Amino acid sequence: MTRVFSGIKPTGHLTLGNYLGAMRQWAAVDQHRADALFCIVDLHALTVDHDPARVRRLSRQGASLLLAAGLDPRLCTVFVQSHVDEHARLSYLLECVATDGEMRRMIQYKEKAVRERERGGSVRLSLLTYPVLMAADILAYGADEVPVGDDQAQHVELARDLAVRFNQRYGHTFVVPRATLPQVAARVMNLQEPTSKMGKSDDSGPGIVYLLDEPDVVRKKVMRAVTDSGREVVYDRQSRPGLANLLEILAACTGGDPSELSGAYDSYGALKKDTAEAVIEVLRPLQARHAELCADPGYLEGVLREGAERARAMARPTVDAAYRAIGLLPAL
Ligand code: ATP
Ligand code: MG
């Protein structure tokens, strides 16, 4: 059976981008057709300036939102990265296979390093090595597929390269994974800056739709979205990024096609109104389920405890094999 792994960082409140680009496929498709693991990758949240209590809170909330979005612990494994030591163990071995040049070429490292410096902070070493830990997350489970948004494709590519290199040098140990991207909304853009990705750790509040935003807040944010000059509603990512983003969000929420949908509108106002309502409808059941889960914290704890046990049992044999293959003496 195909093995699938993916994760989400507790660096901020989850966004519509996280949902449309990743979580929705996990719930609707991946957990049904594959042996799937979904993880709150909390170690990754420590790569930038963080508040410990906030990371803990966001980890719990993120896990609850994964369940609220439809992940079913009877069908897939939901767990927290730091509960399974194998991630950190394997990451070190992969650091001995990756090069510093490879790390410095990662687009996300460059972008986030600039942002940390602009905020007056220094760049943590773990931000540079983050893609290696992510490769360990994937390779520890022998994942064949990694369903992610477009922004993570480069990191999955690195995981592939490291798997191939390790296997060539030390003997076949890892499955070589590949990224799978959604057809629509693989990169939801910020509503206020439609040339930048909507990211949960970005500062620009009004450009980001959070999964727990009330309907009125969603309406306001979508109605105020920056659109392009010109009047006609056409789908063109290059010249009309603001409009294209709205059309993609609408298409992803209603199951339509962005360019076909563009023909159905003769004003930006009407498009925004329908997009806002479509987003609100998608978020409604998720928010209701999240509220139920908040009322029963013991349930979530149980899911995470069991998830970590299952994940440990899956990762340990592969990581132990990697320890032996690379030349470490087995512990007695
Ligand atoms: P951060 O700003 O901290 O990097 P993020 O919003 O990018 O947060 P991640 O935890 O890095 O979220 O990514 C979780 C998943 O959501 C990944 O599969 C990623 O590709 C996907 N994703 C994130 N943002 C978007 C987006 N704007 N559009 C589509 N997919 C996205
Ligand atoms: Mg990200």
Counting helices, strands and paired strands, the structural category is: mainly alpha
Number of helical segments with 4 or more residues: 12
Bound compounds, each kind once, are:
adenosine-5'-triphosphate, magnesium ion
Order of helices and strands: EHEHEHHHHEHEHHHHH
Radius of gyration equals 20 Å
Strands of the largest sheet, in order across it?
1-2-3
CATH class of the largest domain: Alpha Beta
* Whole-number count of domains: 2
Sheet having the most strands: 3 strands, parallel
The geometry reads as: globular
How many β-strands, per DSSP?
Answer: 5
Summarize the structure.
With 332 residues, the chain is mainly α.
Topology, please?
Blueprint lengths: L2 E6 L7 H18 L1 E6 L11 H17 L8 E4 L5 H10 L4 H5 L2 H12 L6 H15 L5 E3 L5 H18 L7 E3 L34 H9 L17 H14 L3 H5 L5 H27 L2 H30 L6
Helix pairs in contact: 2-11, 3-6, 3-12, 6-7, 8-11, 9-11
Key traits:
binds magnesium ion, Rossmann fold, binds adenosine-5'-triphosphate, 5 strands, Tyrosyl-Transfer RNA Synthetase, 3-stranded parallel sheet, 54% helix, 12 helices
If you had to describe this structure to a student in words, what would you say it looks like?
The protein has twelve helices and five strands. By secondary structure, the chain is mainly alpha-helical. It folds into two domains: 210 residues, HUPs (Rossmann fold, 3-Layer(aba) Sandwich), CATH 3.40.50; 87 residues, Tyrosyl-Transfer RNA Synthetase (Orthogonal Bundle), CATH 1.10.240. Helix 7 links the parallel strand 4 and strand 5. Helix 3 packs across helix 6 and helix 3 runs parallel beside helix 12. The longest helix is centred in the C-terminal third of the chain and has 30 residues. It is globular. The chain starts with a strand and ends in a 6-residue tail after the last helix. The protein binds adenosine-5'-triphosphate (ATP) and magnesium ion. The site of adenosine-5'-triphosphate has 22 residues, from strand 1 and helix 1. It comes from Streptomyces cyaneogriseus subsp. noncyanogenus.
